[in-house]
Amino acid sequence: xxxxxxxxxxxxxxxxxxxxxxxxxxxxxxxxxxxxxxxxxxxxxxxxxxxxxxxxxxxxxxxxxxxxxxxxxxxxxxxxxxxxxxxxxxxxxxxxxxxxxxxxxxxxxxxxxxxxxxxxxxxxxxxxxxxxxxxxxxxxxxxxxxxxxxxxxxxxxxxxxxxxxxxxxxxxxxxxxxxxxxxxxxxxxxxxxxxxxxxxxxxxxxxxxxxxxxxxxxxxxxxxxxxxxxxxxxxxxxxxxxxxxxxxxxxxxxxxxxxxxxxxxxxxxxxxxxxxxxxxxxxxxxxxxxxxxxxxxxxxxxxxxxxxxxxxxxxxxxxxxxxxxxxxxxxxxxxxxxxxxxxxxxx
Length: 347
Known about the structure:
The protein is of the alpha/beta class and 347 residues long. The protein has one domain (2-343): TIM Barrel (Alpha-Beta Barrel), CATH 3.20.20. The chain is 36% helix and 16% strand. Helix 9 (293-302) links the parallel strand 12 and strand 13. Helix 5 (147-158) runs parallel beside helix 6 (183-200), helix 6 packs parallel to helix 7 and helix 8 packs parallel to helix 9. The protein is globular, with a radius of gyration of 19 Å.
């Protein structure tokens, strides 16, 4: 059905199309997908000691205000991450701020953490209990005078409702946010997060979402900080504000974060570099260009324990998880493995 509607959907402004997708899921206009290979041992795994039917997650950015996470679980996602959520409600950057690059199977966005704010969203989660593993992605308000405190405030608000919390330090659309990749700043942030967890008596797992645009020197320093601060997962990676030269679409020079196929290889190479340094001590969630069984397979080979997608669903539709599982199954059968985890890091 999506293939028939796609040309019509792609005539709409991307942000309007996204809003319609959220409404369709919210009011159940998108029928629940009959999952093929549900509970297939090939895909079973654990994340933060909780069983997952498969390792394919919805990345933050799709369900910013935690409106449709249970609908996404019904579409087959093994886990879902909502947000990015800031302490206070904010509009984000001026429109237009999302661009669809069809020829490149990519999006560019400069949304700027538009969301309804932590108090509104935590109330929604409390009143709509998640039926699967739910992550909450948090960040600071654009005009905050104390960004570190914004992360702490969100941790306090969500630690009892989320299954894990992601510290987003990597969006290119909030000025100077990526300065938290600096070893000293990142260490201070994560030390404060860990201290607050102890104050709260919370065991909430913490993930950190990093930029694809870091260099090799930064990788080693970031790895050291993650390992020394009880971080349980790293998401590699966010959108890129580079990687534009090979694009075909006329909108390729729009300011914002690039996602989708053009950053697939960049993300996969970065995963492999972190994998070699982390030695299995921190879980890796691979994100960037995942839209097929082959792209997920390559992420696992590089060292990812799980994958996330968002742009992939824009281009392949709501049945994307089942399509990935079907394609991935064929590759895994050829390898003769009993579970996908057997290929992790075998690049």
